[in-house]
Design a protein that fits this description.
Elements: H1 2-24, H2 32-47, H3 51-70, H4 84-113, H5 118-144
Helix pairs in contact: 1-4, 1-5, 2-3, 2-5, 3-4
Protein backbone atom coordinates (compact mmCIF):
# COMPACT_ATOMS: atom_id res chain seq x y z
CA UNK A 1 0.00 0.00 0.00
CA UNK A 2 2.88 2.38 0.77
CA UNK A 3 4.32 1.83 -2.69
CA UNK A 4 0.99 2.67 -4.31
CA UNK A 5 0.80 5.88 -2.31
CA UNK A 6 4.36 6.76 -3.29
CA UNK A 7 3.54 6.13 -6.92
CA UNK A 8 0.45 8.29 -6.78
CA UNK A 9 2.44 11.04 -5.10
CA UNK A 10 5.02 10.82 -7.86
CA UNK A 11 2.32 11.38 -10.47
CA UNK A 12 1.08 14.38 -8.50
CA UNK A 13 4.64 15.72 -8.45
CA UNK A 14 4.81 15.70 -12.19
CA UNK A 15 1.67 17.80 -12.43
CA UNK A 16 2.71 20.18 -9.66
CA UNK A 17 6.16 20.73 -11.13
CA UNK A 18 4.57 22.46 -14.10
CA UNK A 19 3.17 25.15 -11.80
CA UNK A 20 6.47 25.68 -10.02
CA UNK A 21 8.33 25.87 -13.30
CA UNK A 22 5.83 28.47 -14.50
CA UNK A 23 6.43 30.60 -11.43
CA UNK A 24 10.19 30.32 -11.79
CA UNK A 25 9.97 31.08 -15.48
CA UNK A 26 8.26 34.43 -14.96
CA UNK A 27 4.88 32.95 -15.83
CA UNK A 28 6.14 31.53 -19.11
CA UNK A 29 4.79 28.02 -19.49
CA UNK A 30 7.24 25.21 -20.20
CA UNK A 31 6.28 21.86 -21.67
CA UNK A 32 6.06 18.65 -19.70
CA UNK A 33 9.07 17.36 -21.56
CA UNK A 34 11.12 20.40 -20.59
CA UNK A 35 10.02 20.01 -16.99
CA UNK A 36 11.00 16.34 -16.95
CA UNK A 37 14.41 17.24 -18.34
CA UNK A 38 14.92 19.92 -15.67
CA UNK A 39 13.96 17.42 -12.98
CA UNK A 40 16.28 14.77 -14.42
CA UNK A 41 19.21 17.19 -14.62
CA UNK A 42 18.63 18.25 -11.01
CA UNK A 43 18.51 14.63 -9.84
CA UNK A 44 21.60 13.68 -11.84
CA UNK A 45 23.53 16.57 -10.33
CA UNK A 46 22.39 15.83 -6.78
CA UNK A 47 23.23 12.13 -7.10
CA UNK A 48 26.66 13.03 -8.47
CA UNK A 49 26.46 11.16 -11.77
CA UNK A 50 29.31 11.48 -14.26
CA UNK A 51 28.58 13.08 -17.65
CA UNK A 52 27.96 9.82 -19.52
CA UNK A 53 25.68 8.41 -16.84
CA UNK A 54 23.90 11.75 -16.50
CA UNK A 55 23.07 11.89 -20.21
CA UNK A 56 21.75 8.33 -20.13
CA UNK A 57 19.76 8.97 -16.95
CA UNK A 58 18.14 12.11 -18.37
CA UNK A 59 17.07 10.23 -21.49
CA UNK A 60 15.67 7.27 -19.55
CA UNK A 61 13.97 9.50 -16.96
CA UNK A 62 12.21 11.47 -19.71
CA UNK A 63 11.05 8.20 -21.32
CA UNK A 64 9.74 7.12 -17.91
CA UNK A 65 7.80 10.36 -17.53
CA UNK A 66 6.27 10.02 -21.01
CA UNK A 67 5.01 6.54 -20.14
CA UNK A 68 3.47 7.81 -16.90
CA UNK A 69 1.80 10.71 -18.72
CA UNK A 70 0.44 8.30 -21.34
CA UNK A 71 -1.63 6.63 -18.62
CA UNK A 72 -3.68 9.79 -18.34
CA UNK A 73 -4.61 11.86 -15.33
CA UNK A 74 -5.03 10.48 -11.86
CA UNK A 75 -8.51 9.11 -11.28
CA UNK A 76 -10.94 11.31 -9.41
CA UNK A 77 -12.11 10.70 -5.88
CA UNK A 78 -15.31 8.81 -5.34
CA UNK A 79 -18.49 10.80 -4.93
CA UNK A 80 -20.45 10.27 -1.77
CA UNK A 81 -23.61 9.67 -3.78
CA UNK A 82 -22.26 6.59 -5.58
CA UNK A 83 -24.11 3.34 -5.30
CA UNK A 84 -22.24 0.15 -4.37
CA UNK A 85 -21.59 -0.93 -7.95
CA UNK A 86 -20.17 2.48 -8.92
CA UNK A 87 -18.01 2.58 -5.81
CA UNK A 88 -16.66 -0.90 -6.54
CA UNK A 89 -15.95 -0.02 -10.19
CA UNK A 90 -14.18 3.22 -9.19
CA UNK A 91 -12.07 1.41 -6.60
CA UNK A 92 -11.06 -1.28 -9.10
CA UNK A 93 -10.20 1.37 -11.70
CA UNK A 94 -7.94 3.15 -9.18
CA UNK A 95 -6.25 -0.16 -8.34
CA UNK A 96 -5.71 -0.89 -12.05
CA UNK A 97 -4.27 2.60 -12.62
CA UNK A 98 -1.97 2.24 -9.61
CA UNK A 99 -0.84 -1.18 -10.85
CA UNK A 100 0.03 0.28 -14.27
CA UNK A 101 2.12 2.95 -12.58
CA UNK A 102 3.83 0.32 -10.43
CA UNK A 103 4.56 -1.80 -13.51
CA UNK A 104 6.17 1.18 -15.24
CA UNK A 105 8.22 2.00 -12.14
CA UNK A 106 9.43 -1.61 -11.90
CA UNK A 107 10.34 -1.61 -15.60
CA UNK A 108 12.44 1.53 -15.20
CA UNK A 109 14.00 0.22 -11.99
CA UNK A 110 15.35 -2.62 -14.14
CA UNK A 111 16.68 -0.14 -16.68
CA UNK A 112 18.23 2.09 -14.00
CA UNK A 113 19.87 -0.99 -12.47
CA UNK A 114 21.90 -1.45 -15.64
CA UNK A 115 23.79 1.84 -15.24
CA UNK A 116 23.17 3.11 -11.68
CA UNK A 117 24.15 1.59 -8.36
CA UNK A 118 21.44 0.59 -5.91
CA UNK A 119 22.39 3.51 -3.67
CA UNK A 120 22.07 5.91 -6.59
CA UNK A 121 18.65 4.50 -7.47
CA UNK A 122 17.55 4.90 -3.87
CA UNK A 123 18.78 8.51 -3.91
CA UNK A 124 16.86 9.17 -7.14
CA UNK A 125 13.66 7.99 -5.45
CA UNK A 126 14.39 10.08 -2.35
CA UNK A 127 14.94 13.21 -4.44
CA UNK A 128 11.72 12.59 -6.36
CA UNK A 129 9.83 12.32 -3.08
CA UNK A 130 11.43 15.52 -1.77
CA UNK A 131 10.50 17.41 -4.93
CA UNK A 132 6.93 16.16 -4.67
CA UNK A 133 6.66 17.23 -1.05
CA UNK A 134 8.00 20.72 -1.80
CA UNK A 135 5.64 21.15 -4.71
CA UNK A 136 2.69 19.86 -2.70
CA UNK A 137 3.46 22.39 0.04
CA UNK A 138 3.73 25.23 -2.47
CA UNK A 139 0.45 24.18 -4.06
CA UNK A 140 -1.24 24.21 -0.64
CA UNK A 141 0.05 27.71 0.04
CA UNK A 142 -1.17 28.94 -3.37
CA UNK A 143 -4.53 27.26 -2.84
CA UNK A 144 -5.01 29.02 0.52
CA UNK A 145 -4.52 32.42 -1.14
Amino acid sequence: MKSIIKILLFVILSVCCVEVANAQNGGQRISREQLAEVQAKYIAEEVGMDDTTSVRFIDVYCQFQREIWALGPRLRQMRRSMDEADAERATKERFAHSQKILDIRQKYYGIYSKFLTQKQIQRVYELEAQMMERLRNKARIRHRR
